[in-house]
Amino acid sequence: MESVLEHMAQNPELWAFLLLVACGLGLPPWSEELVILGSGYFVASGELSYLSAVIWCWAGILAGDTVIFSLGRFVGDRVYHWPVLRSHLRPARRRRFNSSFLKRGTKVVFIARFFPGVRMVAYLVAGNLGMKYWKFVLLDSIGAALIVPISVYIGWKFASNLDHVLDLMHQYRVPLAIVGALVLAFAWVRLGRARKEKLLRILRMRKNRDKSGS
Fold first, then answer.
1. Ramachandran class of 142: left when φ > 0, alpha when ψ lies in -120 to 50, beta otherwise
2. Contact, 64 vs 17, CB < 8 A?
3. Are 2 and 41 within 8 A, CB to CB?
4. Which residue of 70, 128, 153, 189 has the lowest C-beta tally within 10 Å?
């Protein structure tokens, strides 16, 4: 955790983005969770706003995943032989994902966001087998939206004990995603109600104006 924080201390926003892109490519010896929690740490220190941390982390995740998807789409099967990716892309795992993707591609791509060990393979296969990019981005964005806001918040509120929090996040990844989904659903409902109330106020104002004009 300390090495991540040392990197990010130079420029928390930019380094969060760059490190998450690298995580998407399987390059550094740390995980997305470390970087996102680290962003929360810098929110707690006042060097980063909560909204800025969420946006930069979300963008970094999407950019890294897009690179993997694009490699699958445009480089094709040759990408499976690259040394940096070979350990993640063993033939048996690829065959399982190919079979699963052909049966239920949408579910596989969405669920893979919550399981680091299979995420890269799923996204390469999605690109390789021709999933529409807009659909991939939509699924990946929803998955990231379920994880990033709550993870940044946890890093913010528990900045003094991030190592313990990281262990808990690994144990309760799926429940955290469910909590994130509930939070998003609640926010969506509140937003819908606010828009409805605003529309009703406008209609009432117009109705009153028409009455006064007549």
1. alpha
2. no
3. no
4. 189
What pLDDT score was predicted for residue 23? 84
> How many angstroms separate the first and last alpha carbons of the chain?
70
Q: What is the pLDDT of residues 26-60, one digit of tens each?
A: 776 567 888 898 898 899 888 989 999 999 999 99
CA torsion sign for 71, 73, 75, 81 is positive
Domains in the chain: boundaries:
2-169, 172-214
Identify each DSSP E strand in the chain by its residue range: none
**Which amino acid is present at 194?**
A
- Structural contact between residues 68 and 118, judged by C-beta atoms closer than 8 angstroms: no
Q: What's the pLDDT tens digit per position in 124-156?
A: 888 888 888 999 999 899 888 888 888 898 888
Three-point CA angle 112, 15, 55, nearest 5° = 60
Q: HSE of 53 in the Cβ direction (CA atoms, 13 Å)?
A: 28
Q: Which residues contact 56 (CB under 8 A, 6 or more apart)?
A: 13, 14, 16, 17, 39
Amino acid letter at 162? L
d(CA 187, CA 185): 5
